[in-house]
Amino acid sequence: MAASSRAQVLRLYRALLRESQRFSGYNYRTYAIRRIRDAFRENKNVADSAKIEELLKKAKANLEVIQRQDVSFFHIPL
User: With bands split at pLDDT 50, 70 and 90, how would you rate the model's confidence at 78?
Assistant: First the structure.
């Protein structure tokens, strides 16, 4: 993997972990962290650049979902 791709993957990994820490519910938080770590471990040996791009795209989409859920789920007006 190229150095820039590796740096991009690490930034995304950290961003996903950081965002998942914002869940107030313990079960949601631990599940999200476990899934993120497991997914990145499963794919750590992927060498095909097309597959890496696909996985990065999927991870970015998941990051957006986490960010949206954090905002919409925990800031519901009463």
Answer: very low
Separation CA 44–CA 52 (nearest Å): 10
Q: In the structure, what pLDDT confidence band is assigned to residue 1 with cuts at 50, 70 and 90?
A: low
Structural contact between residues 23 and 29, judged by C-beta atoms closer than 8 angstroms: yes
Contact by Cβ (8 Å): 46, 52:
yes
3-state secondary structure the chain: CCHHHHHHHHHHHHHHHHHHCCCCCHHHHHHHHHHHHHHHHHCCCCCCHHHHHHHHHHHHHHHHHHHHHHHHHHCCCC
pLDDT in tens, 26-68: 998 999 999 999 999 999 999 998 999 999 999 999 999 988 8
